[in-house]
Amino acid sequence: MATVIIPTPLRKFTGNTSRLQIHATNVKETVAELTLNFPDLKKHLLDEQGNIRNFINIFVGNDDIRDLQKENTVVKDDSVVSIIPAIAGGNA
């Protein structure tokens, strides 16, 4: 099973769990299982059409899925999937 790292701002929706084991073959299935098991995550990860929100960055290992096959990026049993919400604000 792949390991999914849940960022601190979203842990309140996963019972404060920082890492989850997910059985999936790609990122889309990974997100689907996450939102099935933790329905409150859905509005934070997916838009109204069911697509991954633009401000959510997902990495498989060290690679941004936007540079790979996006939500069709392969997830293996030894993969580490990181969900990273974009952070805005601050002064330059």
- For the record, the count of structural domains works out to 1
Q: Can you tell me the CATH topology?
A: Ubiquitin-like (UB roll)
Classified by CATH, the class is: Alpha Beta
Biggest β-sheet, characterized?
Answer: 5 strands, mixed
User: What is the overall shape?
Assistant: globular
Low-confidence stretches: none
Work out the number of β strands.
Answer: 5
Please tally the helical runs, counting DSSP H or I stretches of 4 or more residues.
Answer: 2
Cα-based radius of gyration, to the nearest Å: 13 Å
CATH superfamily: Beta-grasp domain
Architecture per CATH nomenclature, i.e. the level-2 architecture: Roll
What are the main properties of this structure?
about 15% helix, about 25% strand, about 90 residues, five-stranded mixed β-sheet, alpha+beta, single chain
Structure, briefly:
The protein is α+β, with helices and mostly antiparallel strands and 92 residues long. Helices cover 16% and strands 23% of the residues.
Can you walk through the features of this model?
The chain is α+β, with helices and mostly antiparallel strands and 92 residues long. It has two helices and five strands, in the order E-E-H-H-E-E-E. It has helices at 27-37, 42-45, and strands spanning 2-5, 19-22, 56-60, 63-64, 80-85. The model has no long low-confidence stretch (mean pLDDT 93).
Layout of helices and strands:
Blueprint: E1 2-5, E2 19-22, H1 27-37, H2 42-45, E3 56-60, E4 63-64, E5 80-85
Parallel strand pairs: 1-5
Antiparallel strand pairs: 1-2, 3-4, 3-5
